[in-house]
Structure prediction request, 215 residues.
Amino acid sequence: MRWLVAASAALAIASFIGLLPASLAFLFKPLTTLLIIGYAWPRGTGLQRRLILVGLVLSLAGDVFLLWPEQGFLPGLVSFLLAHLAYIGAFCVPVKLGASPRVFIAYGVIAALILWQLWPGIPVPLRAPVVAYVSCLAAMAAQAGSWWRKRAGRGSVDEPLARLAAIGGVLFMASDSLLAVDKFALELPLSSLWILATYWAAQWCIASSLEPRSG
Prediction:
């Protein structure tokens, strides 16, 4: 499955950066996230599985909205905000919310610094939605990091899964930071390559934080 996801992602990125017809993005961008949903579907159990699948489906909706970068920006932002809330809920299954306050403080400082740098370029009507989104994104990454911190070095069976969730959170923050810089500050060369590569790597890691089912 990983090779199908990688191939679909590569074709989507190629269509965004002009190596393939731009119209192919309308096929391969949602297809890549659908393949990740297919990868996640047989993994995990219970509430955590359901919440991660909800987050992936909401992300798929966000992907579709953002195929129209101007008209779809706000609904895409809301879709991903809801996806992050679902992921927060999923990462609260193994450990309570804010289980590692220092991790939350670190991510909060990083998010505040990013917002501070971008603030002058964010249109006034979008400032409140962007602040809400960045807060949810940072909380999602921090909760994933908290799960890993509580498991690291203790021989816990779910430590590898927690590590993947934490990596996914970091990659999601990197992807959205690149997107925000490109949209509100300065145009990045080959921006779609970096934004989408880190985005789908993040989603893959989050899907992989669900335990494979035996048999």
